[in-house]
Amino acid sequence: MDTIKSEVISWPIKGRFRIARSIVTKVDVVVVTLTSGPHIGRGECRPYPRYDETPESVCAQIAGLEDKISTLTRETLADRLPNGAARNAVDCAIWDLDSQVSGKPVFELMGLPAPRRRPTAFTLSIDTPENMAQAALATAAGNHKVLKIKIGDTNGLQCALAVLKARPDVELIIDANEALDAKKLRHFQDVLSHKAVALIEQPMPAGSSLPDDTASRSPIICADESLHTAQDLSRLWDEGYRAVNIKLDKAGGLTEAHSLAAAAKDRGFYIMLGCMVSSSLSMAPAMLLEGYADIIDLDGALLLAKDHSNGMIYEKGHVNPAPPHLWGHPRASQ
User: Fold this and answer.
1) Which of 108, 187, 230, 241 has the greatest number of C-beta atoms within 10 Å?
2) Domain for residue 332, yes or no?
3) Does residue 325 lie in a domain region?
4) Adjacent-strand bridge partners of 319
5) Does residue 303 belong to any structural domain of this protein?
6) With 60 as the cut, is the pLDDT of residue 334 above it?
7) Of 79, 106, 133, at which residue does a domain stop?
8) What pLDDT, on the 0 to 100 scale, is given for residue 16?
9) Side by side, which strands form the sheet with 22-36?
10) What pTM does this model have?
11) Per-residue model confidence (pLDDT) at position 15
12) Residues 30 and 153 in one domain
């Protein structure tokens, strides 16, 4: 390996995107480019303030690898960077570079089946119940049979019920981003136990104790901010989580996320394959793990006002595997 560089790229969001802890109108991603002779590999990450990450801190971590570039591999990377966004971008860039050097697609190098076209959730950001119901009926969400709604600590249940009433044809994921307490979670499960709700995602702050009988009730409670790597799985099971949201940015790359997905499947977790709001270059490597996933939430690029010209193809509520020229396949020219 010859060179490594990182670049911050800003992508505008369609309108604004609101979750329990923030409102954003653009996202800043970090793109890593690796070279080896004539070959180029790329990877992208989304630095996330919730995990004390900024574009500057991530770029600084990546810059620290420059003097070790000649010996950089996926294995040595795990010793040099912690789990998180920086390692994700570099790990995915190494996989992409390996594809160019070997002439084989990444899924083949990993011993995985070719990824398939899958239905993906479409995310509605926090708003009033009335506005979220209207958003569920809008063209952007209309073809999706799985909707994910962001909620805060007020009106969340009313928002869920309004969306379900407006779209009785969909299955719902409710993502609280740590905004609820035990009493509110209990009430959510009581009211929604017989509704078309697949998951309640990270209802309480990471590290909080879920109600004792959470695991025996429905809807299923899914860990997001509480989950990073396979080492978290035993603790999460003991805490009452029965589903996990696997994201490459949290795990620290495709390599670690693959290990996490396999371990979660063996442990009996229901698996959601998720993403941060970011471009198709982030969605592409995640799609390789779709075979482990019970439900897919890879709509990050759909939430942007623009994307790569050769980006992921979304159609009729589905996401397709990455186009060969985007990531993870040998490319005729660099």
Assistant:
1) 241
2) no
3) no
4) 118, 314
5) yes
6) no
7) 106
8) 81
9) 3-19, 22-36, 39-45
10) 0.96
11) 84
12) no
Q: Contact at 8 Å (CB) between 281 and 31? A: yes
Q: Does 168 map to a domain? A: yes
Q: How high is the pLDDT of residue 19?
A: 87
Task: Kindly state whether residues 101 and 133 are assigned to the same domain.
Answer: no
Say whether both 159 and 36 belong to one domain: no
| 247 three-state secondary structure | coil
Q: Supply 99's token pair.
A: 């594809």
- The average pLDDT across 94-119 equals 98
d(CA 206, CA 227): 9
Residues of the domain holding 60: 3-106
Which pair of structure tokens corresponds to residue 156?
A: 């969340």
pLDDT at residue 293, as a whole number = 98
The answer to whether residues 280 and 189 belong to one domain is: yes
The residue behind tokens 């993906």 is 120
> What is the pLDDT confidence band of residue 333, given thresholds at 50, 70 and 90?
low
Provide the residue count of the chain.
334
- Amino acid, single-letter form, for residue 95: W
Mean pLDDT of the chain: 96
Domain count, the chain: 2
Residue 175, helix vs strand vs coil: strand
Clarify whether residues 255 and 280 are in a common domain. Answer: yes
> What residues form DSSP beta bridges with 146?
171
Structure tokens at 214: 């959470």
Q: What is the mean pLDDT of residues 46-54?
A: 96
Dist. CA 216–CA 202, nearest whole Å: 17
How far is residue 11's CA from residue 28's CA, in Å, rounded to a whole number?
6
CATH code of the domain covering residue 129: 3.20.20.120
Q: Which of 32, 11, 29, 8 is nearest to 81 (CA)?
A: 32
pLDDT in tens, 220-279: 999 999 999 999 999 999 999 999 999 999 999 999 999 999 999 999 999 999 999 999
Asked if 260 and 229 count as a contact pair (C-beta separation under 8 A), the reply is yes
